[in-house]
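Contributing: when you submit paired examples, paste them exactly as shown. First protein:
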Amino acid sequence: MSTAPAVAPAQSAQRLLGQTVVVIGGSAGIGLATAGAARAEGAEVILTGRNPERLDDAVRAVGALSSAAFDATDPDRLGRFFAELPAPVDHVMVSGSGPYYAPLAEFDFAEARRDADQHLWLPLHLAREARGRVRPGGTLLFIGGTGGRSRGVGLALIGAMSAALEALAANLAVELAPVRVNVIAPGFVDTALSARLLGHELAARREELRATVPIGRVVGPEDVAALAVHLMANTAVTGATFDIDGGQQLV
């Protein structure tokens, strides 16, 4: 009795070959990881960020096509960035700063307005600029979070911003069609931003998550990047919010 020879699986095609991905906030963390994942799938990437030196390092690390250093919450500068793109792009992802937490007794309204600029007004301004500059079937991807679904002291603003972003994406998916609009909602992600926010509590938080979440490990930026690339490549998905927290909400 003979058996058929084993056949090595064909190398999968690069899912973003020939496409261009813009990552707003692409110099570190989730944004940088997504840029690297998109490059690995054949895309050209364009990065933006506030810090010119860190942005230059990111460009070299992923082999970006080009970059621009500016504050994306400045709508005039954001508009110039899109107007200066030499050709339409296929996907735009917005990453950036973490949310603002504070109880009402300590609430800093100036800081809260900056948070709203980042997590509400920036997506709206970007959606308007995307008209005619993102190819049909392409994607706008916004980074939200699962933390805003909790209830408690200090969570009023993040709860409002989280709900607003999900509703915004669902409505923009209709208004901007056939451009697709989706939200990625991470829980804790092990990035330099998380390290800055948690400080000396970081190690304990990692251990707590490893011991409690169903996947038995901490979610990293490369996990979120893999989901982002999937949503860019899967042209059937729009108007949706995708959680990625390792099952943290379940426990």
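Second protein:
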Amino acid sequence: MQLFQSQILGTGAYLPKRVLNNSDLEKMVETSDEWIMERSGIKERRIADPQNGEELTDLGKNAAEMAIKNAGIDRQSVDMIIFATLTQDQPLPNAATILQNKLGITNYCACVDMDAACSGFIYALTVANALIQTGQMKTILVVGGEILSPLVDWKDRTTCILFGDGVGAMVLGRAPEGSQSTILASHLGADGSGKDLLYVKAGGTTTPITHDILERREQYIQMKGRDIFKLATRAMAENSRQVLEKANLQKSQIDWLIPHQANIRIIETVAKFLEMDMNKVIVTIEKYGNNSSATIPIAFHEAVMDERIKRGQTVMFAAFGAGITSGSLAFKY
């Protein structure tokens, strides 16, 4: 079987207009800017308004249109949309089909959502790369985005400080012959025994929303932070090691690290494992907080736009999420 190279053709990102900073949170819950910064590195986050033109797929449309424009392609040439998210506009239909319609793509391209929580974008990018490599698709729009704010308990200071909303997008396409840009390797994993470390108990088919559920506030994100920290750093480091081995790369050959933006201390720990100075790590957590599957594509887009990341450089993505899912991916941009 002939295998093709895939390369990143264009990127985009979109953040909601409303900024919720730490001083705002001080008025909502017992906390302080100093406490939040020390524990998470977050200064502010964005909060979407789905009732006023900021549904997840509205944010996705803006990010996707930017990625398509930057890729220099006709949107009708998109063969597939993969939307990594756990916060779809509604249970049915999936977010990818709604996004397809909002983008005006009328070529009947394949559309699928992928829920691997904060690891979702790396999962989606790995699947897109495999489909392009094997010749089944030529051009795939990969979107990572969340509106997590409705799942946040704004009375719980341990979680409400962390999460925000936003969407990032990327067009992955078949690379022209002779191109040096390509996905080098990826590694995905999960440890289902950690399912009770980061979860939303209610809202699924097992525990539908009822008045009692709402009174117990079980519709919100629950997290065991210390346990998550240990598993996250271990998983991200091990996955990155596996990717380096698969790609036959040395740590010193990685020009940029873009880790999932969950906690500044986790980011620093993973950078230390890869022996990377923090000035080679893309960090957006101070501005946007943790917007799950969107953190990596947003951070990558910003670094490409401000020309920190340039063509020919080698980049490593690393993430973990509820499940506990995890993944790393290396590519030459």
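If you have annotations for the second protein, write them as plain sentences, like these:
The mean pLDDT is 96.
DSSP finds eleven helices and 13 strands in the chain.
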